[in-house]
Amino acid sequence: MARYNGPKTKISRIFGEPILGNGKWLGKNSNPPGQHGEKRKRKTLGEYALQLREKQKAKYTYGVLEKQFRKTYEEANRRKGVTGENLIKLLESRLDNTVFRMGIALAVLQHASW
User: Fold this and answer.
1) Which of 7, 13, 81, 86 fits as disulfide partner to 76, beta carbons 3.0 to 4.6 Å?
2) How is 47-106 classified by DSSP, letter by letter?
3) Which residues are CB-neighbours of 92 under 8 A, at least 6 positions away?
4) Better pLDDT: 113 or 22
5) Residue 3 lies in a domain
6) Which long-range contacts (CB under 8 A, 24 or more apart) does 71-79 make?
7) Candidate from 4-18, 56-70, 84-98 with smallest mean pLDDT
8) pLDDT of residue 80
9) Exposed, middle or buried, 72 (CB in 10 Å: 0-12/13-18/19+)?
10) Tell me, what DSSP letter sits at residue 16?
């Protein structure tokens, strides 16, 4: 199963909140990543950009890639009820997430490649 194995602090700095890990370093270096991160203008985001950022946050939080996320979304959309709530239920019920929430696995193992 494919996993994101890149730098986790970079992902959290993009969103400005602790996505992966505890985020104790966010107060020290809260700039976005990159050479010109602190100089970059922060413009207001449109509706589509906000939706895309929330989708990316969910993908990184639950450790799924785009294809897995899309299949989960389609399943949530087929079920009765609110699609967003169904999506979160399906993502929370994944085996790797359940094992992590129960405390059986370490936080480091949640995003490691198996």
Assistant:
1) 86
2) HHHHHHHHHHHHHHHHT--HHHHHHHHHHHHHSSS-HHHHHHHHHHTSHHHHHHHHTSS-
3) 98, 101
4) 22
5) no
6) none
7) 4-18
8) 94
9) buried
10) T
Q: Is residue 2 situated within a structural domain?
A: no
As for how many domains the chain has, the answer is 1
Q: Which of 8, 102, 13, 114 is nearest to 61 (CA)?
A: 8
Has residue 1 been placed in a domain?
no
CATH number at residue 19: 1.10.1050.10
The highest-confidence range among 32-36, 83-87, 105-109, 110-114, by mean pLDDT, is 83-87
Question: Among positive and negative, which fits the CA dihedral 70, 103, 7, 32?
Answer: positive
Q: What mean pLDDT value characterizes the chain?
A: 79
pTM of the model: 0.71
Q: Which two tokens stand for residue 28?
A: 């020290």
The residue segments making up the domain with residue 43 are 8-110
On whether residue 93 sits in a domain, the answer given is yes
